[in-house]
Amino acid sequence: MTWSLIARDAEGRVGLIVASRFFACGAVVPYVGAEVAVASQAFCNPVWGTEGRARLIGGEPAETVLADLVARDEGQAIRQAHMMDAAGNFAAHTGAQCVAWAGQVQGHAHSVAGNMLAGPEVLDTTSDAFQDGAHLPFAERLIAAMQAGEAAGGDKRGRQAAGLTIHHGEAHAWLDLRADDHADPLAELSRLWGVAQERYVHFAKGMPTAARFSGAPTREGIDADIAAAEAARVAQGQSSRSHAVDH
Predict the structure, then answer these.
(1) For residues 62 and 68, is the Cβ–Cβ distance under 8 A?
(2) How many CA atoms lie within 13 A of 57 on its CB side?
(3) What angle do CA 77, 83, 84 make, to 5 degrees?
(4) pLDDT tens readout for residues 23-70
(5) Is 40 exposed, middle or buried (0-12, 13-18, 19+ CB in 10 A)?
(6) Domain boundaries defined on the chain
(7) Secondary structure of the chain in the HEC alphabet?
(8) Which residues contact 107 (CB under 8 A, 6 or more apart)?
(9) Which of 80, 133, 206, 245 could form a disulfide with 141 if both were Cys (CB 3.0 to 4.6 A apart)?
(10) Does 193 sit behind a cis peptide bond, omega within 30 degrees of 0 on the bond before it?
(11) pLDDT in tens, 95-142
(12) β-pair partners for 40
């Protein structure tokens, strides 16, 4: 099951987006850190994700880490994984018993891998769309690339779930969106990204970091940004995309 895209943008942000005809793939596939990422898929081994991420954060090369995980796992023939190390290098493994079509494509600062796909064009199209989307905000670029891959056939079984995780140089995620059981999960991620523009992205500006332990200790600037974003949305005649219900 599944195809996923790992990427780093020009500002050093790390993103991993995944889609599948499998429930909650966004919970079981991505393992992301400040500078590294692991996607463990097919018959997922979560230890490939947790151990792999820790070792990549510790400075080991992706090729070394992945080769060791493959060598130790008696189930490696049904596993698929790709990963990016802190230096921006990629490594990938597709087990011999992964369901066709299965494989991996690497491009500039990104990697795409998948199994149970309609064909190799899914990965090629996803990669090409990511390359061509440099003008888009990073989250939109990742979503658009996967939507292009879906239009090329995607998971040959259909659609069910998707997840998007982005780290801005911190151990904690800057953005973590999931559609666990949805008829059009990538479109749902796009909607959630739109909702994030209303409040979340402004709140996130004040979130603490390792370098700024207290972050923005008052709400003053955050509330002003939220109000300005709402005023701009209303002026453009756009309604909220949120499903929230107010009392």
Answers:
(1) no
(2) 16
(3) 160
(4) 999 999 999 999 999 999 999 999 999 999 999 999 999 999 999 999
(5) buried
(6) 3-182, 197-247
(7) CCEEEEEECCCCCEEEEEEECCCCHHHHCEEECCCCEEEEEECCCHHHHHHHHHHHHCCCCHHHHHHHHHHHCCCHHHEEEEEECCCCCEEEEECCCCCCCCEEEEECCEEEEECCECCCHHHHHHHHHHHHCCCCCHHHHHHHHHHHHHHCCCECCCCCEEEEEEECCCCCCCEEEEECCCCCHHHHHHHHHHHHCCCHHHHHHCCCCCCCCCCCCCCHHHHHHHHHHHHHHHHCCCCCCCCCCCC
(8) 127, 130, 131
(9) 133
(10) no
(11) 999 999 999 999 999 999 999 999 999 999 999 999 999 999 999 999
(12) 81
Q: Which two tokens stand for residue 185?
A: 């999960």
Q: How far does Cα 17 stand from its chain's mean position?
A: 2
Contacts of 78 (CB under 8 A, 6+ apart): 42, 43, 95, 97, 98
CATH label, 3-182, candidates 3.40.50.300, 3.60.20.10, 3.30.420.10, 3.30.70.920: 3.60.20.10
Could you give the CA distance from residue 77 to residue 139 in angstroms, rounded to a whole number? 32
Tell me the one-letter amino acid at 195: V
| CA proximity to 60, closest of 89, 37, 30, 85 | 85
